[in-house]
Amino acid sequence: MKKRFHINRLDHQLYISKSVLLLVLFILSIGLSACGEKSDNSPADSRLIIVGFDGMDPNLTQQWMDAGVLPNFSKLAAQGTFHPLATSNPPQSPVAWSSFATGLPPGEHGIYDFLRRDADTYSPDFSISKTIPPENILNIFGLNIPLDEGQIINRRQGVPFWSDVESEGGRSSVIRVPVTYPPDPIHRMMAGMGVPDLLGTQGTYTLYTTRSLAAAGTSSSRVVRMRPHRSGRIETSLEGPTDPLHEEHQTLSTPMILEPTAEGAKIQLGGETIELAVGEWSPWIRVEFDVLGPISVTGIVRLNLVAAYPRPQLYVSPINIDPEAPVVPISSPADYAADLAGKIGLFHTIGMPEETWSLNENHISDKTWLEMLKTNLDEREAMFFDAMTKNDSEVLVGVFVQTDRVSHMFYRGIDPEHPLYPETDELARGAIEWIYKEADRILGKVMAEMGPDDRLIVLSDHGFAPFRWAVNLNRWLVDNGYLVLKAGKTQSGIAFSNVDWSKSTAYALGLNGLYINRKGREAHGIVEEPEANVIKARLIKELPRWTFTPPQATQAVAVEDTITTEAELEAEVEQEVTPAPGQAVIRQIFDGDVIYAGNANGDAPDLVVGYEPAFRASWQTTLGAVPKDLIEPNAKKWSGDHCITPEAVPGILFTNFKPEQPISQIAQVAAYARKHWKQNQAKTP
Amino acid sequence: MKQVYITSFILLAITLGYFLVSKPVHKEIPKEIPKEIKNLLIITIDTVRADTFYASEDNQFSDRLSIWLKRARVYRNAQSVAPWTIPSIATVLTGYAQNQHGAGAFPGAIANLNTQLPSSVLAGVSTLAERLGVAGFSSNAASAHPWFSSGFGLERGFNTIDARKSRKNIDIWFEQSIKQREQASVQQRNFTYLHYMEAHGRHTRNLEEYFSKLSNDQKKRGLNWAGAICENGLEATICQRYLVYNQAVLELRDSLANVLEQLENSGLLEQTLVLVYSDHGEEFHDHLEQAQADNHDPRGIYGFGHGNSLYEEQLHIPLLIWNPNDEKGRIVNTPVSLLDVAPSILDWLGVDISADNFPGMLLDKAEKETDRVFYASNIAYGPEQISVRDGDEKSIWNTVSDKSSYFNLKNDPDEQQPLTGDDLVLHFDKLTGDYLDLASANIGEPPEIDAEQLERLKSIGYLQGSEVEATVKPKPDPNIDLTIEQDETKILPPQTENQ
User: Taking the model in full, what pTM does it have?
Assistant: First the structure.
């Protein structure tokens, strides 16, 4: 699951200002000390090359291999092995890739979901990394001067196999693997999922429009209304991080000017002037936000002119950390990002750069989004092959997440039962097959580049399933007496705004998590330990009994010529109005105490919800809201998902060799990598 | 000698410099001490469009009001803020725009006053009667409009509200009110509010009855004034409606003259600020083809009535003021807004408004200000629309279809020739956005109304849909008499605090 985490939806102003402040205070305080740079560039022998294609589904892979459109995957399967790879529980990318890296189950590596809940506030928090601002700040002349360094912490526990290899004398190159922020001090690493944008969020784009906000659509990100002059000239600004030094903490900004052209618009930003046609992407533009005197913060953005004059709309990407002047460490060694940018050009640095939410909100088109995604793919490809052709690492790991993103956004094109399927065009229906072919093309390049003794593992962290129905799990908890709303309230906004905690025993937050409102753990917990087990047992029993009959499931049977009597006709009518038997919403509820032994970080949910395919927690559920309906049709373009019961969405595993021990579970890859290194070491004279 | 010249030159330069950089000093011209305005009389003539009201003047037809208009400030280009009563009157009685007073809005983007109760004035918003009550005024109202006494907040601050049905009853009520004030031992400052409804419903719900009562002279006069409305002759229903409407407006002018005469005869006019306006206008198929093409009105009514469009026929309204400090009347052609009414009244009556942030202007200043933008919104039937008037240019934006129409009111006062142009789109998108940026979630809750109130609202054409369910209203304020007299000959005397 690669949800673009938009925590700014929760409490936009509060969260952004807080996280921005933390980030920039950190920026100002931290010394960009070089991570453990190694200068050994000697050729590597018998490399272990691991290529991840996030979210690649075994069924779709097999289908297109059979159809002959994935020749390199077919070739690889013939050389070695191909089989489904059991994923983590829950089957979410940060959880699964953490198990991949460390070989540990979630209970030991401590990543259980994209979101963790803050037991003090019942509000969601990003689970992957944490920024700790400097402890000591000097307040003088209206300025806040940090006196010590802040910290960025990867919440993932355990040691990744690439670090083990390094500690035993090997060299590892790890390119954009999820949950690698801040980067490990190894031979070469470009951090992946977890790297924030310059606002400190996991990706906040900005849509500029001259229309009212209502006409521009409801927004989960920043929507800025521009005030055009009659001539079409528009003077506006791009807002960046919060001023960390001045006590007022005002938002830093840089000016932007738009003017109409015959083809589209001329845009002045960051000292550059560019002309864009409608739908066209700009090159990277460097933007600078002045803090104080010579102190400034730079980022990079790309623009897309979504709509033309006289009603221009301009999309501005999240402000990526500038790889040539990174304000926080995003690579190891620290100057690797800048060196790479010098070689392949500027690139997306944010952990999840495929801005899925802009497509989900229809702020940009399918075509525009796929063009952006192709840029991301090209960047990753250039990075990976730069590292591969250097041939200076015994372990090379790269993850391409674009397979996952396209599957999320375009499952509507291959799922005839999805509400949006009738609206899909040829582009949408072919998008997932296209990205699988791209994966096959990259695999072909990898295989061509490999040495004779290199070993290759190709894997995915999970598969995919349709996402047709959004489940408001907190509504079910309210309807069944577990979650109690304040007097007079029938619904609740995000972060459980209308919940009466003095009467509530359980709540759902995140994509699969269910929590007991435990006394002594939650801020307003009421459930004592013995009772918690009773409630858990009840939920484990009751939730899988929940059935749902989709409105369109009514079986309409054509009246046949054989119906001759009134009784038969009545029976026919009866059949038409009788709904089909309800389908289960949830296959299984997992007990956190059983599957998360250890409970590293203390973030483990008490229960994990294993939805049936076609169902998934609604976006409102993930953020702790209680909408009116139990289940709603998913009318969003985010139409495929995998945050369901793990057995329904295994990943893939291909190898160019026959493993001595079977690799059937994603956490077993790390053990193989460690073993492979040891065997190689043993061979070395 | 040379030194003397140099010194003199420096002194001259300093002196000149001083005069160049210092502010000019004006001698204070003594002003005539303004008369103290003790009382306020606001008269709402519901549903009167400006061109029909001023048809008498434009066609050299004299009636009892004609002579009074010569003594009045006549704002010939006054603009309402909404095409129906509640949002418009709430603006007059609070001084705030719709998104500030919160009244007259509906949930969702498509309004239907036939089936939904509108929102009421927000709890924290003060009305004129409340403000004046603090300043020592007693406030009394006689209103023929049920909205005024149904809990929508328009009634706030009045000591008494008498619900009257006809202008004759209101006229009698006012006559008795004058007498009581003449007889009162202590002259408390007073705010009286009158609300006439004759132009609202005769031509819609009682057409046959009132058309049959028209004399030939009245029909002939109406035909002459009707213009394109009667292009298909007297047999056309729309023409008959207009003739009945026109006659109702003439009768309202007669009532206005009657009220003014009573004030003058009692000597109260010298110390009373009188303000007459209409809350909105009325359409008579002025934009029929466009209305049929749009097909917006959920009732299926095309281009007739009010509350369903933002054309000038529904927004351009009469506004007249008799201010004791005006030596003579004048015609003001500069556009002004109903937003200007409340702050002007409070200022004229000596109430400090320096702490208020009214969106309107003082009328004394507004009539000289030509660079203003006027907004209207709050459709009652159909998709919400927002109109913006900037100088001679105007846009009407349908927020649901997202279509805009642009007009030049100078060249095309009847709004029949829509304009196009990127500059118009850019300019009016900006202005519309400015208006929307002011909007907040400030929308009041609809009040609970009882069955009787529902019936009264239905009797004038509102809330006809069967979906409307009356809810039990909390016990009414004992100080407000909300009863409608069954026998209109039995007139309840107005109450004052001196009694």
Answer: 0.81
